């Protein structure tokens, strides 16, 4: 099984408010440092994204790829790599847990990245950590600002 990196953050908003920002792919370039473009290619019966094309620039990892999304209830979304130029694997998830009676949310982001070019595992884990930390900080700022 591939190694993964995960981290959590507490956001002062309900899980529904947090998930609304996570599910709004068109606005990812506004709050994620790495996603430069996002385009929903297909949706499920509930209107949630199933396939999303993302243009990513995460320093050591730059790629134009498509992810397949799977929604588990209202509090979890996971994705797997569908198509990529540079990546062999980009699997991850956001899991939301209500805190303080639902007034705040613990968000856990898990990510596994593997590239087609040779790269030390230590460098891949560092890239995963940078992506996760920036995404969680950006998500917190975006949700709490009410934008």
Give short descriptive properties of this protein:
single chain; 147 residues; alpha+beta; seven-stranded antiparallel sheet; 7 strands
Task: Describe the protein.
The chain is 25% helix and 49% strand. The chain contains 3 helices and 7 strands.
Number of strands: 7
Class from secondary-structure proportions:
alpha+beta
Shape category = globular
Gap between N and C termini: 38 Å
Strand content is: over 45%
Question: Fraction of residues in helices?
Answer: 25-40%
Poorly predicted regions: none
Q: What is the helix/strand order?
A: EHHEEEEEEH
Strand order of the largest sheet: 1-7-6-5-4-3-2
Average pLDDT reading: 88
Q: Over the alpha carbons, how many angstroms does the gyration radius reach?
A: 15 Å
Instruction: Tally the helices.
Output: 3
Largest beta-sheet details: 7 strands, antiparallel
In short:
With 147 residues, the chain is an alpha+beta fold. It is built from three helices and seven strands.
